[in-house]
Structure formats: structure tokens, C-alpha cells
């Protein structure tokens, strides 16, 4: 009788200089390889790939947009596109703990048209692809926001200020204003965060 671990067939995401592709195995002792039903996109401009923590979603940038795919539990089924996000320069991606939101970060830039710069950290609702939050986050090293495990708290440090958002009543209301700001912060942690 096979152990439970032997029945799980993991999927690997590969980002190379020529493509983003998913590989799977026919079993725990079998080699990984690209299967025809799994997504593969030839692109030399991909900067980031990311699975949600539960493996339900896979997101990647391709130099034109960010694609979010729904993983299939059926080893022979295709992975449908859940949403397309208009972020051609997305450099980093991060899902919220439950996979409800996807954060994208791109290099901060000022232009002649926008000398103050544009928001470069954006949060999207995965189910709809709707942008629910945007802010300027110049710091590349610690760009990632933190979430509580239930996604009711969203927090990040911007310019030495910790910003906390209460999403208990939904993203639209929760992201409208900070519930708390703390100045002169170098680092923070949210209990139960991922």
C-alpha cells in the first residue's frame, strides 16, 4: 500500500532565460518533465514566478502582464487563467496567506510626466483581477507586506513608517485608510503572519 506522500505529485515551476514552464512527475520516484497539458510560455522577459501557499494558484510575469493560473488537482487537466494583471514591469510577486490577493512590486521610477513617481507596489484581488491598493514603495530589499493568517491585517513599512490596514470589513473599506501608523520603524512583525 502506498504512503500518503507517494500519492502527492508535486509541480515545479521553472523560470529560465527563454520560458516559464511547469513540470510534473508521474510519481515520487519518476523524473520531472514538462507535460503538454501544463502551461509553458516562451518569454525572455519573465522576472518572477510564485505559487500561493496552498498551491491553488500560480502567478508569473512575462514582460507584458502578470498571469494568475488556477492549479488543477487532476494531473491531466489544463490550468485555466484566473486573471491577467496589467503589470509589464512586475519584478516581484507575493500571494496573501489564503491566496485572496496578489501583491506586485516593480522598480520605482520617475518620469517627465510623473516627477513624483507612480505607485509601484500594487495589490490585486485574485478572483476578479481588480486593483485594491497601490502605494509608492522605493525599498526593494524589504518590499514585501505582511498579512495576518486570516488576511484581516495588512502591514508594510514605507519610508521608515509602519502602516497597518484593517481588512476585517473587506478590501475596499480596509485599504481606504490606515488603521495605525508608527513612525521611525526599521522592522516589524505581525503575529500569525506569513
Describe the overall structure.
A hairpin with a 5-residue loop joins β13 and β14. Helices cover 4% and strands 37% of the residues. The chain has 2 domains: 4-137, Neuraminidase (6 Propeller), CATH 2.120.10; 145-194, no CATH class. The chain is mainly β and 194 residues long. Strands 1, 2, 3 and 4 form a 4-stranded antiparallel beta sheet that branches. A 4-stranded antiparallel beta sheet has the order 5-6-7-8, with no helix packed on it. It has helices spanning 4-7, 171-174, and strands spanning 11-15, 19-25, 32-34, 40-42, 49-51, 57-61, 66-70, 81-85, 92-95, 101-105, 121-125, 131-135, 146-147, 153-158, 161-166, 180-182. The protein starts with a helix and ends in a 12-residue tail after the last strand. Keywords: Initiation factor, Protein biosynthesis, Repeat, WD repeat. GO terms for molecular function: mRNA binding; ribosome binding; translation initiation factor activity; tRNA binding. InterPro entries: 6-blade_b-propeller_TolB-like, TIF2A.
Q: What is the secondary structure topology, with strand pairs?
A:
Blueprint: H1 4-7, E1 11-15, E2 19-25, E3 32-34, E4 40-42, E5 49-51, E6 57-61, E7 66-70, E8 81-85, E9 92-95, E10 101-105, E11 121-125, E12 131-135, E13 146-147, E14 153-158, E15 161-166, H2 171-174, E16 180-182
Antiparallel strand pairs: 1-2, 2-3, 2-4, 5-6, 6-7, 7-8, 9-10, 10-11, 11-12, 13-14, 14-15, 15-16
